[in-house]
Predict the structure.
Amino acid sequence: MRRLDHAEAASRFIANEKHEAFHDARLWDLRKKRDRVTHAIPEWEELRQLASDIKEHTLTHLADYLEEFERKALENGVEVHWARDAEEHNQIVYDILSARNTKTLVKSKSMLTEECDMRPFLERRGVEVIETDLGERIQQLDDEPPSHIVVPAVHKLRGDVSAVFARTLGSEAGNEDVNYLAETQRQTTRPYFLSADAGMTGANFAVAETGGFVVCTNEGNADLCASLPKLHIASIGIEKLIPKVEHLGVFIRLLSRSALGSPITQYTSHFRAPRDGAELHVVLVDHGRSGRLGMQDFWYSLKCIRCGACMNTCPVYRRSGGLSYGATYSGPIGVIIDPTFDIRKYSNLPFASTLNGSCTSVCPVKINIHEQIYKWRRIIAERNQLPFVKKATMKAAGKLFGNPTLYRAALSAAGSALEDLPRFAIYNWFNAWGRQREVPQPPPQTFRQWYIENRGQR
């Protein structure tokens, strides 16, 4: 598998200064809103610790809680399916749909179905899949994956959305009014809600005690997907489980505050049993989660509640855009999840971080994200997955920094080079630093020279 070149993809995003500036400002605004609402809750840190502890307990007893969830769900009249991987998940969904001659599926936002690449799988088999979340619909119409866990089209300006809708939905070209664009989405999606043969949702939390699950949205589209068609399918990753209903209060208080800086999502919908005359199917999906659960340093990532707070605060993500990560999960959480799917393909991602630790600080379930990023760097190096240039550069740097005499000579030579070499010798294709910024002027003397001169005799 070819390595993803995050730096190259990020450079294309950065080249559009208007988009880059908006993306950075919009996400940082979400981070500031998150800070304001969390600082208003005295017990915020206690909630984070409690959520982390609940998740840790659940994950270390996951088999038991999965069996309890299945047992309760079956008692409720829900049909439960188990999928080992993406292929099995997609086939299960297709079999459910084809057995009922279903041709149209309306669905709400689900990162799991994106992860499984479900929509193309179904469309190749004659099932029309309509994304009903506004951001996901924009991305579907523009033939792009989501760039953010919570706000899938955050990298687009209103002019971009206007152009997409004019091209695909026949809306008024050049009309960038947000109310008009939102109404265009409503009017073009409502007929699908009314005529669809089946609806699909994901789940934010699944409760072992009751066999039910909870979906949190701000648009109400998930409720329509689940309530209008007579067939409702819910795809749920096995890590979404929590033990009891009483634990929901902890996570509901954390989720929207961390994601958008709002006290709660507009719709927090509970599903436990099928409606009269309808069907409810739950597909419990592994797709690498059991393997990750067995990874000593990385199983903590399964605590993630998909709030996107780490993405909103990350300086690299905010300036490079989510699509530059080339995976379903981008930003800091993607950096630690994606290599578990394909370590070679995503071997560059752990280096797309400053290791500043802000992602860990805002994570509502206290995942040690920046520590895991560092550990992935070590593993990638140990497994010889570093690109040749990086590997050769690091080897040369190790020899340089390990030899004081050579290091001091190199410092003097570098200072002279910066002063005397012509500009093209420094600012060229080989100097990645110079492609993005001016190389600083060297000081008149090194710290060691200054120390010997001023303190050497003391």
Remarks:
- The longest strand covers residues 231-237.
- The first helix runs from residue 6 to 15.
- The chain is about 55% helix and 10% strand.
